Amino acid sequence: MSFAPLDTSASLPLADTEIASLRQRLHNARHLLVLTGAGASAESGVPTFRDAQTGYWAQFSPEEMASEAGFLAHPQRVWDWYQYRRDLVRQVMPNAGHVALAQWQARHSGRMTLVTQNVDGLHQRAGSTPVLCLHGNLMDNRWLLPPKPCCDVRFTEGDAPPQCPGCGNYLRPAVVWFGEALPHAELQQAQDAAKACDLMLVIGTSGHVYPAAGLAHIAARGGAHVVVINPEPTALDSVADRCWRLPSAQILPALLA
Ligand code: OAD
Predict the structure, then answer these.
(1) 251: closest CA among 3, 1, 23?
(2) Where, by residue number, does NAD(+) bind (predicted)?
(3) Which member of 105, 107, 157, 223 has the greatest number of CB atoms within 10 A?
(4) Which ligand 1 atom sits closest to the C-alpha of 204?
(5) Which atom of ligand 1 is nearest to the CA of 117?
(6) Which CATH number fits domain 14-45+93-135+181-257: 3.40.50.1220, 3.30.1330.30, 3.30.450.20, 1.10.10.10?
């Protein structure tokens, strides 16, 4: 059952009893699964993807900027966009939501599985460990094609994007693009945690991208209590037991203190 939409004003309209009741559930939980999306980094100053005005996909098409075909069609354009995002992420800091999650995870060793669709590394910079990164890491590169003996990241030529001087293979960002498989081990661990958890927090994701969004369905099917934390309605509200329409950096410190 979902709660009726809450007031979205910035003044934390949530009743104390509502927070206390979820804190009690958290206290009693055997295992907590947390899934985060771009909204978890919004208050750090990182744009989301689907915001109608400021989202990346309001300005760029995912096919052009987040697919292998788009990269091959315009390698420099795509590379430059990732370099821009890397520069931006270097300038921002983890927010109070990232920190609250990291501190809870450290205080309750082994009781939380943290899964993120974000590639910005802000959970890790807040101190979270381990973090299951389903969509890769923005700061890392990998070879576009399986590397040959001549492909050595220490010896590349050009920088937009760098290429192997021997065979022309490109370096590309080590993120998951549309049409590509998620890292098998991370996805498997996330799905196992979804089956095993009794509480799941779904934070800052529109819930439109699978298989990440499927974790909430798996958790709900297994009887876990599912909570969506997001100022806007999401595609996962229908599987949630509670929807808290709040920005995550505002509510997570109070919930996870
Ligand atoms: P989206 O841009 O689809 O959704 C971001 C969500 O964050 C929206 O539902 C917002 O309402 C919510 N939001 C905004 N500010 C928030 C805040 N302060 N606190 C909590 N929530 C807030 O981003 P994702 O769901 O992460 O994939 O997108 C999933 C994947 O689609 C991304 O990993 C990316 C994208 O295309 C690839 O690039 C492969």
Answers:
(1) 23
(2) 117-120, 204-206, 230-232, 248
(3) 105
(4) 21
(5) 33
(6) 3.40.50.1220
Question: Is the separation of the CB atoms in 47 and 56 below 8 Å?
Answer: yes
Angle made by CA atoms 148, 152, 154, in degrees to the nearest 5: 175
Is 208 considered catalytic here?
A: no
Is 117 one of the annotated binding-site residues?
yes
List 226's β-bridge partners, or say none. 200
What pLDDT, in 10s, does the model give residues 214-226? 999 999 999 999 9
Q: Mutate which of 8, 49, 203, 215 to test ligand 1's pocket (most atoms within 8 Å of Cβ)?
A: 49
What are the structure tokens assigned to 174, written together?
Answer: 């080590």
Domain segments of the chain: what residues?
Answer: 14-45+93-135+181-257, 47-91+138-175
Which residues make Cβ contacts (< 8 Å) with residue 77, sequence separation at least 6?
64
- 47-91+138-175, CATH topology level: SIR2/SIRT2 'Small Domain' (3.30.1600)
In tens, the pLDDT along 9-57 reads: 444 578 888 999 999 999 999 999 999 999 999 999 999 998 888 898 9
- The predicted model gives 77-92 an average pLDDT of 96
- How many whole angstroms from 155 Cα to the centroid of ligand 1? 36
Atom 31 of ligand 1: nearest residue by CA position: 209
The token pair that represents 254 in the structure block: 């109070």
Ligand 1 neighbourhood includes 248 CB (under 6 angstroms): yes
